[in-house]
From TrEMBL, chain A:
InterPro entries, alphabetized: CytC_ox_assmbl_put
Name of the protein described by the UniProt record: Cytochrome oxidase small assembly protein
Keywords recorded for this protein, A-Z: Membrane, Transmembrane, Transmembrane helix
The species this protein was found in: Castellaniella denitrificans
Transmembrane segments: 12-29
Highest taxon of source: Bacteria
Automatic annotation (TrEMBL), chain C:
The protein's name: Cytochrome c oxidase subunit 1
Subcellular location(s) of the protein: Cell membrane; Membrane
Organism: Castellaniella denitrificans
Highest taxon of source: Bacteria
Membrane topology: Multi-pass membrane protein
Ranges annotated as spanning the membrane: 41-60, 80-103, 124-145, 165-191, 203-230, 250-274, 286-308, 320-337, 358-382, 394-416, 428-449, 469-492
Amino acid sequence: MTPEQRRRNRRTGWVLALFAVAILVWTFVRANLYGVVG
Amino acid sequence: MIALSWATAAGAQVQDMPGGPGVNQLNLHTGVTPIAREIYSLHWMMLIICTLIFIGVFGVMLYSIIRHRKDKGHKAAKFEEHLGLELTWTVIPFLIIVGMAIPATRTVVAMKDTSSADLTVKVTGYQWKWGYEYLDGPAAGVQFLSNLSTPQDQIDGKAPIGNTYLMEVDQPMVVPVGQKVRVVLTAADVIHAWMVPELGVKQDAIPGFLRDTWFRADKPGIYRGQCAELCGKNHAYMPIVVEVKSQEDYAAWAAKQKSAMAAASEDPNKTWTKDELIAKGKQVFSTTCVACHQANGQGIPGTFPALNGSTKFVLAPMKGQIDTVLNGHPGTAMAAFRDQLSDTQIAAVITYTRNAWDNAGKGPDPVVQPSDVKALR
Amino acid sequence: MSSVTVDHIPPHAGHDEHAHHVPHGWRRWVFATNHKDIGTMYLIFSFCMLLEGGTLALLLRTELFEPGIQFFQPELFNQFTTMHGLIMIFGAIMPAFVGFANWMIPLQIGASDMAFARMNNFSFWLLPVGAILLTASFFVPGGANASGWTMYAPLSLQMGPGMDFAIFAVHILGASSIMGAINIIVTILNMRAPGMTLMKMPLFCWSWLVTAYLLLAVMPVLAAAVTMLLTDRHFGTHFFNAAGGGDPVLYQHVFWFFGHPEVYIMILPAFGMVSQIVPTFARKRLFGYASMVYAICAIAILSFLVWAHHMFTTGMPVTAQLFFMYGTMLISIPTGVKVFNWTATMWRGAMTFETPMLFAIGFIFVFTIGGFTGLVLAVAPIDIQVQDTYYVVAHFHYVLVAGSLFALFGATYYWLPKWCGRMYDERLGKWHFWMTMISFNITFFPMHFLGLAGMPRRYADYAAQFTDFHQIATIGAYWFGLSQLLLAYIVIKAVRGHGAPAAANPWEGAEGLEWTVPSPAPYHTFVTPPQYEASH
């Protein structure tokens, strides 16, 4: 792997990890809203 | 159907269960309600269409397997796509799906329409039995619990299994024929589900919420179902029996229920003798407590506490045990029985435990009166 | 393992191999960063879990041989049922597919390894930790989780410490899946050989690309769901407790929002495998490559929109019932397209029927049956009658066992020569296939009848009228379980070197970069990326 490739890989990897964390957070937020209203 | 009858405790030849499953039944019940019959037809429609498609596709594949083989000398063709073919076999299935969805939609809408009911019954799921309460009609105010009535000996293999094994109860739900019965469901502890295949009904019973469904039985008879949502250890042991009677028989049954309830209504201030309480308490114990605490009072080590020799609650001042039976232990399997059992029943079962097995003569408060329970509610 | 190491470096491997010496002993495996080694470990782990999950199934089928309780009290039976599901899904099927991804994706796209080799190691080694937690949960007070693999509240709130073990195991296994998914996406997007555009990629890679996105999107949802169970159990929250203002059905929505894409996560890579095997043995290119890609994407997108078809009896409004019914029925269309395309690939090919092809064709046949029962279940009124009955159990075992597991078996035979350099015993392979195929149908076909007749699922005991079909299912299950020992024998035999040496491409019709490297594949492959020129 070239250093350039490594850098691109890391960037894509972090974006995807952020996506996963965002979904985790969103689920909790939705559950709290729903739970309070429902 | 070849009966693979290993010699079992069952002994006698099994027959179709009236109102329940037939021996080696292959298909849905035709049912005794219009909805059940619609579902039966929908299923046939799906089965026929899917079978025809299946035969078509795998007929082609089988032909190919037989003819397009290397060992028959067939040379491979080179084609890789065909837009027309691909569009066809996308659009045609789509149209078939639409065709299936139209009658299904009609039935969905009909099943959800619980309006204009002739009779409403509230059904509550408990661990592990059903409770029925009539909200209107000739039986308004009648309420009772419906427990599995199959003897434990049959379950343990000590007695031959009966023909209504696991689908028989001490008190069935009774409804009149030809009337729209609205069933309002809830649960006291965990999610249960009320299912009666002959009626075409299944509805989850959710604690803290009310859900409803309906049926209109067009034939008198006895119809059987079971709990259809995992609810703990006795999930398989809380069946449903619905008895559909003619309108006159239903009215007669309702009248009898109401007078029986009046006669049995207990004066909570009455003082009972020890023997009366123990006898009644033994009955309550055997339907309500034995599932976990076991008939010998030993419980299941590590899971359900023993009552025999229990110094924490049973061989201790009565307040702790009354509180436990009334309010349960939240976060454990010990439910609150304040709404399921009357003061008299609670007093009786507590008295029974304090005098049964090895407990007699040990511990304070060997006799608990209904008024003691009422005071702590 | 001897035929997978490069103790004997094949003479035609690149001379720069000497620069990276192959590690030996336990360090090679504990600190593995090589995609082939990690793939091997995933596959061995998943097979062990298959045996553990299978043993649980045999235990519960033994109890179900006759009505009445003979061996296991219902509470223990419920533990077996629950753990059978959790172990098979999270311990056997998912890791097996990841094992194949690790082995084959770099080889198929011409990459030297996965994008994140060290994270790959961590992803694997989390799995035994999760598996130990799950297994250990049987031995804590109260036993293992007994609320079903679906862990519905409020029942799951009543469970003892075994439930907490299961929750932590799910967290750990989920973290492993998420990291694996990130690895796979980045590898596929960034490390394809020059000349390999996405639409020239083998379909197995496409299926994993889409699956990895699904994993990324829904494993966090599961993590949230079980965390909320944990806090409801121990930290005073009321997400699912009506008395505190919560809603048990909320759990079901969150769980199935994960749960439905999860089942597609378990089948899409299988579709990819079958799409590699059938063209090889038909000696004909896959029919409609582009449509197959679109179908995979359509199935993945639709899978997010149909979760409540698992909840038709919870009492949702009419419009919701109809929406989820229509959405679910629609998924059959791209799925049907795939079946038609595989058939068209076979049509006018020049087929031979070695074991991988037997499993691939067997997959199409039996998975389609499962697909049809899924369509029947999609029709909400019918679902009302058969939800939570053995009809559902039959359906999902047809798609998960005859689907996913058959594809895994077929792909094992297909790629085993590449992994270990030997041909497996073809005669024994065919025995494995036929025994598996026949015993599978004996076990699960009668369950359709049981379900239609009203036999509920997760029951330790049943009415006498159901006995015959249960006995047939139990006998079939034993035969099925024992047949898998034959697979272990076949694989071990080949790996230990007892089989004809395999050429770089042992399959006449196979195409793909993996068949351009020697068999067994050298420890390091595609150290310099190849120029990819094949057209599609």
